[in-house]
TrEMBL record:
<dbReference type="InterPro" id="IPR004360">
    <property type="entry name" value="Glyas_Fos-R_dOase_dom"/>
</dbReference>
<dbReference type="Pfam" id="PF00903">
    <property type="entry name" value="Glyoxalase"/>
</dbReference>
<feature type="region of interest" description="Disordered">
    <location>
        <begin position="96"/>
        <end position="117"/>
    </location>
</feature>
<protein>
    <submittedName>
        <fullName>VOC family protein</fullName>
    </submittedName>
</protein>
<dbReference type="InterPro" id="IPR029068">
    <property type="entry name" value="Glyas_Bleomycin-R_OHBP_Dase"/>
</dbReference>
<feature type="compositionally biased region" description="Basic and acidic residues">
    <location>
        <begin position="101"/>
        <end position="113"/>
    </location>
</feature>
<feature type="domain" description="VOC">
    <location>
        <begin position="9"/>
        <end position="126"/>
    </location>
</feature>
<dbReference type="InterPro" id="IPR037523">
    <property type="entry name" value="VOC_core"/>
</dbReference>
Amino acid sequence: MSVAYKPEGYTSVSPYLVVQGAAATIEFLKSAFDATELRRYPDAEGRLMHAEVRIADSVVMLADSAPAWPALSAHVHVYVPDVDATYRRALQAGAEAVQEPVKKQDEDKRGGVKDAGGTTWWISTRVG
């Protein structure tokens, strides 16, 4: 029996975020996007060396920054069933507003928030 090249239920591409406050980022993702925590590997001091959450059909991997791995800002795009409701939940969970949801020239209504760890989350719903 051969071993699958990736875990069952994982997509082939996953964002990997290196942030300050990975545990807080996980809590934000749970509140804003109904993320489910999959794995958490802390070191002896409690820093997260690696963690994973699932948002809908996608896995986001993350870790606390370290001297050899500094925190980096990132932008992540997430499709959700209701962009307005998710945007409000993200703000209630402590995110900073980047752009209120608006329909522009493409088929999506999109808004943006920035979490405390420095990641900007672009939230969209296809509206036609």
